[in-house]
Amino acid sequence: MLEWLAKSTVGKMLATFFLSMLPVTELRLGLPFGVALELEYWQALVASVLGNLVPAPLIILFIRQVFEWLRQRHPRMDAWVTRMEDKAHLKGKKVERYGTLGLILLVAIPLPGTGVWTGSLVAALLKLPMGKALPAITIGVLIAAAIMSAVTFGVIHLL
Fold first, then answer.
1. Are the C-beta atoms of 52 and 147 separated by less than 8 Å?
2. Most C-beta atoms within 10 A of its C-beta, which of 4, 31, 140, 153?
3. Torsion sign, CA atoms 13, 16, 21, 22
4. Measured on CA atoms in the order 135, 140, 144, 146, is the torsion positive or negative?
5. What pLDDT shows up at residue 65?
6. Pick from 109, 62, 39: which is nearest to 119 by CA?
7. Can you give the three-state secondary structure of 39-107, one letter per residue?
8. Cβ-count burial 17-47 (b if 16+ within 10 Å, e if not)
């Protein structure tokens, strides 16, 4: 069964979807991965965009409670949580300064330390309403998808 899943379009789309959900890889790796698996471009695009967006509302809604729970139940995690919050607050200053455009750009630029996870964390810590944060994050993901599409196909054509 796993062999069929690994070779099927559905299996490849699921692998792309789940890889795009992860905080380090996100769409930056998910989209090129899907293309490398020989998915049709639109299939890789849909799987990576949807996978990348899934964590956003969950992070916005629950990350502050998760951080508080970690601090209470696992005091050793306090330093890690504090580092995460400090990084988010630094990036949040730009979001506060530039508003929605700042959040869009934070998510759109496909570099380490940016993306949906960081943007959602910043939105949560700044207590941005879901109705404002989620559309900005979605626009950022679509811009990141366009950038990564250009990079992916540029690299493929160079090889």
1. no
2. 31
3. positive
4. positive
5. 94
6. 109
7. CCHHHHHHHHHHHHHCHHHHHHHHHHHHHHHHHHHCHHHHHHHHHHHHHHHHHHHHHHHHCHHHHHHHH
8. bebbbeeebbbbbbbbbbbebebeeebbbbb
Cα(119)–Cα(15) distance, integer angstroms: 23
Looking up tokens 């965009």, which residue turns up? 49
Are 84 and 51 in contact by the 8 Å Cβ rule? The answer is: no
pLDDT at residue 103 in the model: 96
d(CA 147, CA 80): 31
Domain spans of the chain? Answer: 2-158
Nearest C-alpha neighbor of 43 from the set 17, 20, 8, 13: 13
Distance separating alpha carbons of residues 25 and 112, to the nearest angstrom:
9
- The pLDDT of residue 125 is 92
